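The following block was generated as part of the benchmark described in Methods. Ligand: NAI.
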Amino acid sequence: MTDAIGYERIGDIAVLKAQNPPVNALGYDVRVGLMEGIARAEDEGAKAVLIYGEGNTYFAGADIREFGQPPKSPGLPEVCDRIEASPLLVVSSMHGTALGGGLEVALSTHYRIAVPTARVGLPEVLLGILPGAGGTQRLPRVAGVEAALDLITTGRHIRADEALKLGIIDRIEDGAPREIGLAYTKELLDQNAPRRPVSEMEAPEPVDFDAVHDSVLKKGRGQISPATAVRAVQAATELPFAEGMKRERELFMELMNTDQRQGLIHAFFSERAVSKLPELKGVEPRRLAAIGVIGGGTMGAGIATAALLSGLTVTLLEMSPEAAEAAKGRIKGNLQGALKRGKIDQANFETLTEKSLTLATDYDALKDADLVIEAVFEEMDVKKKVFTQLDAVCKPGAVLATNTSYLDVNEIAAMTKRPQDVIGLHFFSPAHVMKLLEVVVADETAPDVVATGFALGKRLGKISVRAGVCDGFIGNRILSTYRTAADHMILDGASPYQIDKALEDFGFAMGPFAVADLAGLDIGWAVRKRKRAEGLDPRARDSAYADKLCEDGHFGQKTGKGYYDYAAGPRSRVPNPDVMPLIEAERAEQGITPREFTDEEIVRRYMAAMVNESAKVVGEGIARRPLDVDMTLLFGYGFPRYRGGPLKWADLEGLPGLLDDIRSWAKEDPYFWEPAPLLEKLVAEGRTFDDLNKEAAA
Ligand code: 3HC
Ligand code: NAI
């Protein structure tokens, strides 16, 4: 027997215990262990087999690290068939999560018991594949087609009570999985309960699969695995079980060979690797219980909301009692949303707003705070004053953080006598919803302050990414470049509407002009004014048509008009008829003859600009690894998860071809399209961005 499955005999029952930490993934050793365990139980004359998991969980699924490697027999479908076909009575006892292949193993056993906290699901589509060990054939037979389609196409996890109602589990019992499993198995043996192979159950009733397929495809914004999974479930209704399994396998292998599968698996592992920094190994974060927030506008109120929801106490400092009350109103509004969604109850709501939150206008109120986050106006002078005051009142060791979007954190830190305690914590709007947090490390920031930034991110349920100091850090710096690429295409002949459509078809949640309307066109206007005041490089192309929109008072959704007209509400945008004439006038003024762009060229230029700037950001050490850029774009900028991030996309697309395009465009505009040295180096060495991720992990 392998060590991955323990074997124990209790009377007539052979007990197979999964012991493959941390999540009992069904890797090769576990599969072999299950095959051997079943065979041994049969050879030794046991009457029943109980399968359960040691540690935190039953099997959490196939071992994702094996994907893309040559398959090693026995495969999981074979293991499931072997379990189901055993003449012994086979029972699963589940705790933790029974996900993917884990639930497929459970569905191959004849009876299933679970603890109340157990969760089950088939999340394969979230990894770009579909359940490939009988899940698409067995689940519809057990729970019906409708429930199976829901679970398989969304990948959502359900609680034991819902699983019981759907017939996925037979009983819920509190206790240790081994003990409740043994008692249940004994009971079944005493009752002479029959084996109950799901494959022998009747085929489920069909539904209108074409309609479901099309609607799932549309919802997936270009992601194919959920729609493909619909066809596998369809096979369960149309084909005998063995034929259905064959169809499932074909579709599974098709998906296994897609770039989308690679993108999603990259996202899965990068999401977990992003907060693991070698520099933080063994570094303890500082104490984090009471925090201060300065400025209770859009961001300050959002940050305070997130902090309150995570159980921290918050002192919010504003310029006047009226402004503080207004900030409290915004926080209450945010918390009301959480109340409506059932994340908190009325009693929590009262505690959070009346006990955990304190309003202040005097800096003395911040003297006991463990960490203070400043979210005042984006003006260096204002920020400098705030940090001078914080330095005067905060206790020694308090972390002093700025939420600035672009400003120099070193310059802000220099206002204090404790630059080692100063850090950037760049949240995204709305801060209590968006998952991304850039932890901006300045020249003198102490390691335990960085660790505290990451600890705060974890506590707030954020994906935290380490960034260095530069204009815009990782995300906004890259955004500014790909936005510029879009602006250039507009000058040269594309329309904002064609660009948005092409990029939404590529998978972005929203195109760049719809995003600008949502964020407020005044933000970009302010940045352009600042950059012009600092002095634009004479080689940079500039345009003024967007300023004219702002001068006319059109700031996007909040004023009802921007690139689009929102007269019928924020979700029903139509092009604003004033925009194209402004663009045409600008082209005429600059002497540009507009040309046609294909959607393909739009995507290529936009993505190449994004990749080139990302490579500069990594090359300069602003992001430590390519995956840090990928996670920033995924969690803060609506980048399609199934493409993995811009640098994963670049690897899959081929770096030499991208560099060729960049070089050819550099002939027209050498300033904008200057190739990133890191991209040139990787191409010259025949390596990829993922090679850099692997080197960093080694
Ligand atoms: N294979 C390999 N490693 C896995 C894994 C898996 N299925 N699931 C989790 N891990 C690893 C993680 O990468 C992490 O490793 P690290 O410590 O080196 O970073 C470690 O296990 C712990 O994982 P988490 O940090 O995510 O732990 P949590 O307790 O927060 O979450 C979980 C546990 C809910 C099980 C979560 O890890 C999860 O959702 N895992 C993926 C589950 C899944 O997608 N299963 C389906 C797989 S596909 C399949 O089964 C195909 C089949 O149909 C043929
Ligand atoms: P906002 O204008 O909505 O809020 C700023 C708040 O700060 C106002 O309520 C104001 O009364 C208060 N304030 C100003 N000076 C103060 C002082 N000296 N002391 C106490 N309070 C003071 O601005 P917003 O959008 O919340 O931005 C705040 C910061 O967050 C800026 O640095 C901005 O760049 C950054 N940011 C903004 C994002 C956004 O999408 N709005 C996203 C990420 C960061």
